[in-house]
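Hey all, sorry for the wall of text incoming. These are the two entities for the joint prediction.
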Amino acid sequence: DQQVKQNSPSLSVQEGRISILNCDYTNSMFDYFLWYKKYPAEGPTFLISISSIKDKNEDGRFTVFLNKSAKHLSLHIVPSQPGDSAVYFCAPINTGGFKTIFGAGTRLFVKA
Amino acid sequence: DAGVTQSPTHLIKTRGQQVTLRCSPISGHKSVSWYQQVLGQGPQFIFQYYEKEERGRGNFPDRFSARQFPNYSSELNVNALLLGDSALYLCASSFVQMNTEAFFGQGTRLTVV
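and here's what came out:
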């Protein structure tokens, strides 16, 4: 039962260009959406979030877009930097149930 | 300020043995959650504890148990280890019960042989 899908296992982008990471979900009870970044040998680090009452949230180079009708969200990184190379997890929450569901992750490679 | 700390960082156990993993949350955080991450997958929710009470449980067998202590640190216990329990076990803490901004430890890498 995959409630959260990140269909691209990996993505390669040139430094300075835009990185777009996608996430699809099936559970309409999710009302808060988080993105985490994970480097090897480290735990995931919170990156950015969006509430279901919004369709866009921006924090510096990172912007998350939410399309509730399509049950789709995306993370945009502009401009991409080599230090952004990591695994990115989409993690929706049903805040009434306190359970965070993680996608399988997308490994981003930013080439210098 | 110390972040979330987990111990040990690595360990190797034999099938059938029992293991205890430990987690110290960020000071002031009252919620601790445990996740299992196997290779190629995202972290899977195991338990959440808030104010020393279990608040959520994922789809894991009864061999998995946890508890939270008065100082909000937590232990995850796994009995009768199987090869399939080999994974990275992550602990996350947050100030409130809602994990809307949880902070993760570096994880414990468990290998069952």
